[in-house]
Amino acid sequence: METIIHKADTRGYADHGWLKASHSFSFANWYDKDRLNFGALRVLNDDVLAPKMGFGTHPHKNMEIITIPLEGVLKHKDSMGNTWESVLPGEVQVMSAGTGVEHSEINGSQEESLSLFQIWVIPNKENVAPRYEQKTFDVVNRKNKLQMLVTSIDEDHDGSLKIHQDAKLSRLDLDENKMFSYDLKSEHYGVYVMVINGAIEIENTLLNTRDAIGISQTESFTMKAHTNTSVLIIEVPMRF
């Protein structure tokens, strides 16, 4: 088994006033040669947007983009015809950029900040037709059990959103002192675990809010919650 530890305070950070962004991997003006990606996981940004502010229209191509609002309301508009769709906490949004798409994202609230994760996964098929999905996931269905959010478009899994990569994104809420064993698809895959909030022990390492661990070259690992804890789990191929 191999592990890498990314403590919250080692992430890249940018304060643009209207946007406060923490980067788990090299992004924009923050570059770390040792943190370019984790397998097919290229970006995990932890963003907080001020009220009424956001990202103007900008392009993407050949990237699978997953957005998970944590607090507030996200408004999304794109060149595929989606006009200021609301994406709320409890929902997940997926956009396959493929041959090219333009979109805008803003904080839809006049008063409250918007907190979200934006995740980029390198696709296993390029130049596909752009596509968009969003879905609500009930918090009850991840209490002490794995809730699958995103899987491969080639995998027959009901209820999850789809991307063009053999990857899985899940959430898990563990009660204090609960344990959970996670099984990887094979030793050729790796798992990146981000602690959304709480404290959890994974492979004898204590991780607190916004700490993360990457685990590879193993078939399984175990987690134990030290408090009530919520985690985001991203499994990706390490070679792609």
Automatic annotation (TrEMBL):
Domain (Pirin N-terminal) ranges: 13-121
Domain of life: Bacteria
Gene3D superfamilies: Jelly Rolls (2.60.120.10)
InterPro entries for the chain: Pirin, Pirin_N_dom, Quercetinase_C, RmlC-like_jellyroll, RmlC_Cupin_sf
Domain Quercetin 2,3-dioxygenase C-terminal cupin residue range list: 149-236
Family per record: Belongs to the pirin family.
Annotated protein name in UniProt: Pirin family protein
Organism encoding this protein: Formosa undariae
